Amino acid sequence: MSDRLTGHVCLITGATGMAAAAATRCAAEGAGVFIVSMEPEECRVLAERIRQEGGTAAWSAADLRDEVATNAAVAACVERFGRVDGLFAVAGASARTHGDGPIDQATLDGFAAAYELNAVPAFTVAAAAIRQMLHQDPAAGGRGAIILMSSVLASSPAQLFATHGYATAKGAIEALTVTMAARYAADLIRVNAVAPGLVATPMSQRAQDDPASVAYAARKQPLAQGLLPAEAAADLAVFLLSPESRYITGQVIALDGGWSVTEAPA
Questions:
Q1: Are β-strands 252-255 and 189-196 bridged in parallel, bridged antiparallel, or unpaired?
Q2: 40, 60 in Cβ contact below 8 A?
């Protein structure tokens, strides 16, 4: 590793999949990592593994749909490390079991649940992080960097993954990214988003167990020849949270193995 995040404090929401990969990689690059998830055992296990590997990590359990709990978690990060230099807001979930799906089959409860599980946590934690960053003295690269989590489905839909509430919530996150970036650029706070394709995480287990979805991913994501590894998100997160990307803001970066530029397979 190159110690690109030495002296930085990175707040990661989520404790499995891409969040776990990013937390581990950020710590390996020298950052103090603070993990926030609603599952305390997952937080504890991830933080302990990072510490066993020589990194610095702490955690707090919080339901990020709760603004008070989110504010408290960010305050706990500041109490432990003194500041927040980077936020990677990964936490989110499918609302398929709540009734999300193609709009002619979806329920209003499912649509609302998709928004609550994805757009609301992005809003609450970004708002708390921004308030903290505005009070910080600029360091190398500015006052702070934020990465929100979108999805390739917000702009490149697929029939196999027609969850319209989820795609809409991710589209809202992209709009939040750009408008936040515009508002806070003068304050030296950068905001970008990552829009992954199909990634091998616990959330995508249903797709991983479906031969048709696996075959689709192999054709639609030719650079990965299948599902993307969670570590791909960690690579991009380190770059976007580090001073190397100090002049990049307001961007939605497709991390999709070619999905968005590859014709839909027959």
A1: parallel
A2: no
* Residue 166 annotated in active site: yes
Give residue 218's Cα distance to chain centre.
Answer: 23
Give phi and psi for 188, each to the nearest 5.
Answer: 65, 35
Contact 198, 163 (CB under 8 A): no
Distance, CA of 13 to CA of 89 (rounded, Å):
5
Neighbours of 258 (CB within 10 A): 15
**Structure-token pair, residue 240:** 């976007």
Q: Starting at the edge strand that comes first in sequence, how are the strands of the sheet with 144-149 ordered?
A: 56-61, 32-37, 9-13, 86-89, 144-149, 189-196, 252-255
C-alpha distances out from residue 218 to 151, 197, 205, 250, Å: 18, 12, 16, 30
Catalytic residue among 115, 166, 184, 247: 166
d(CA 204, CA 221): 15
Give Cα separations from 259 to 2, 220, 262 (angstroms): 30, 5, 5
Question: Residue 24, class by beta-carbon neighbours within 10 Å (0-12 exposed, 13-18 middle, 19+ buried)?
Answer: buried
Distance CA 145, CA 247 (A): 11
- Residue for token pair 């397979």: 265
Instruction: List beta partners, residue 57.
Output: 33
**pLDDT tens-digit profile, the chain (266 residues):** 568 999 999 999 999 999 999 999 999 999 999 999 999 999 999 999 999 999 999 999 999 999 999 999 999 999 999 999 999 999 999 999 999 999 999 999 999 999 999 999 999 999 999 999 999 988 656 899 999 999 999 999 888 788 999 999 999 999 999 999 999 999 999 999 999 998 987 776 777 677 888 888 889 999 999 899 999 999 999 999 999 999 999 999 999 999 999 986 65
Do the Cβ atoms of 149 and 120 come closer than 8 Å? no
